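call fold(seq) -> tokens
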Amino acid sequence: MPSIPTHTLPSGDALPAVGFGTWDMSDDDVHHAVPTALDAGYTHVDCAEGYQNQAAVGEVLANHDRDDLFITSKVLPPHLHYESVFEALDRALTRLGIEALDLYLIHWPNPAISLRETLSALEKAHADGLIKNVGVSNFSVHYLRFAQYMADVPIAVNQIEFNPWYARHELVDYCQEHDIVVQAAAPLGRAVVLNDPVVQDLAGKYDVMPAQVCLRWELQKNIVVLPQSTNPDHIHANLDIFGWEMDEADVRRMDELDRGQNAYQLDLDDPIYGITP
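ret:
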């Protein structure tokens, strides 16, 4: 398998272009899927306190060389007060069994809590060596502009929902113009895009799986992809997206699939993700 290309973050750290997502995994799923991913060659693991499985991820990571891995986590909206950020970060590091995160993201913006207060906490955690890179998730251009203005450390990453049916052109362009790496959460649209006739047609043309078509298209748009699966065959296939390219004409066909149709959104009634003071 060809080596995984990387994106250089403002810190100089190398962010692998493909990561393994752990959303919606039970502890049992984690214990089976994450070792499969790491053995397959993934080195980038995407976590979040909201996924409620970080202790299980940490148990898997304990069997691998920390220096070989890039570990991301995210802090929930209710935990964005200054002290709460440190409490959430301490829980994440303890559960994951590591001394520092390679990347720590604000999972969703919370208009009830000062963004400046949150960023101040992240800057202190960065200065203390607890996090190597600061980023955000699900931030619009509007929120990104505020974050960039307020932050004393670079906003390295914006993790957003991105897939062929939800291409977010204005947001992606803004990020890339400002050297903010875009990470694609739900890069397959929670599987809904895989039956698209164009995706199916290109899968036949390139003799690959529909998921590989979507992920390859995203890579060629300079976006980091975070596929998630508990199926060993799919875990391996989702990494087998190097060593070949889609023709520019086919990239444009994929570009035209955008429907502005998202697969997920913040549930304000969910006590885990809820926006609360």
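The first strand starts at residue 6 and ends at 8.
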